[in-house]
Specification:
This protein has helices at about 65-80, 100-115, 125-130, 135-140, 175-180, 200-205, 210-220, 245-255, and strands at about 1-20, 25-45, 50-55, 85-90, 145-150, 150-155, 165-170, 225-230, 235-240, 260-265. It is α+β, with helices and mostly antiparallel strands and about 270 residues long. A hairpin with a 6-residue loop joins β8 (about 225-230) and β9 (about 235-240). It is globular and about 55 Å long. The relative contact order is 0.18. The mean pLDDT is about 95.
């Protein structure tokens, strides 16, 4: 049996940080959206365990621990010993970039194993949260408001099919460092009809000032309805009023900044 699960890019359309928690995490309110494109995890029964990373960002993960393996081991600890597996991670998304790459990969691994063993997605909620704050949302893979650490999910409607352009300037930003740089000011809740924001942007721009350049360039393009940083950065995104204006923006950015990573996609 061979199973492949997509690990789609995760976007925080808004991210309001409300408070530091005694457990070391932060109380947040966010709006998650998921793209049609991302990494992929393939799992096949094999004679012995193996783990292979392919794709344009594979080299960035060499020598690091990987959440895919952590997910495999956590699943086995909860649901019993697994047969030997050949696991392949196709790494298409930049690493440490604010679009849920590692969390999405872990979630894809959990979904693949769940299909192999006949386990329900809701049975893995505890495992997912132990792996990371974004993993429960990535496990569900649907647009949702997230509260608590991000694991308290409420479905959100109306985002499917929206044209999106993701841009990363080639800078890896530490999530822990960005959260540590948050100024501690509660600027209010995330409400459907109110103005939203990303409270981590200022801290991320201090670490990687180029984020400001990316946002300014995105916001200046015709057809943009929203330009913002996702998560803890450094990936930024713009929503467009059409696929044509998105394509024009992509072409202009690729010409002016050929070393930046760009992805034209849509929300699922």
């Amino acid at each position: 049996m061979t199973i492949t699960e997509l690990a789609p890019a995760k976007i925080n359309l808004a991210l309001h940080v409300r408070a530091r928690r005694p457990d070391g995490y932060h109380e947040i309110e966010t709006l998650f959206a998921f793209c049609r494109d991302g990494d992929a995890v393939t799992v096949a029964e094999a004679a012995s365990d193996s783990f292979t990373i392919t794709g344009p960002f594979a080299d960035a993960l060499i020598g690091q621990g990987n959440l895919v393996i952590a997910a495999r081991d956590a699943f086995a600890a909860r649901f019993g010993t697994l047969r030997p597996l050949a696991i392949t991670l196709d790494k298409q998304l930049p690493v440490a970039s604010g679009i849920g790459g590692g969390s999405a990969d872990a979630a894809a691994m959990l979904r693949a194993l769940a299909r192999m063993r006949g386990v329900g997605i809701d049975e893995m909620a505890e495992i997912a949260l132990a792996l990371g704050s974004d993993v429960p949302a990535c496990l569900a893979g649907e647009s949702a408001y997230g509260r608590g650490r991000g694991e308290q999910l409420t479905p959100a409607e109306g985002l499917t099919g929206r044209p999106v352009l993701l841009v990363n300037p080639g800078v890896a930003v530490s999530t822990a460092a960005v959260f540590a740089g948050w100024d501690g000011v509660d600027r209010g809740p995330l409400e459907p009809d109110a103005v939203s924001r990303n409270d981590l942007e200022a801290a991320a721009r201090t670490i990687a000032p180029v984020i400001g350049n990316v946002l300014a360039i995105l916001a200046a393009h015709p057809g943009v309805t929203l330009a913002r940083m996702s998560g803890s950065g450094a990936t930024c995104f713009a929503l467009f009023d059409s696929e044509e204006t998105r394509a024009d923006a992509h072409a202009g950015i690729a010409l002016g900044h050929p070393d930046w990573w760009c992805l034209e996609t849509t929300f699922t």
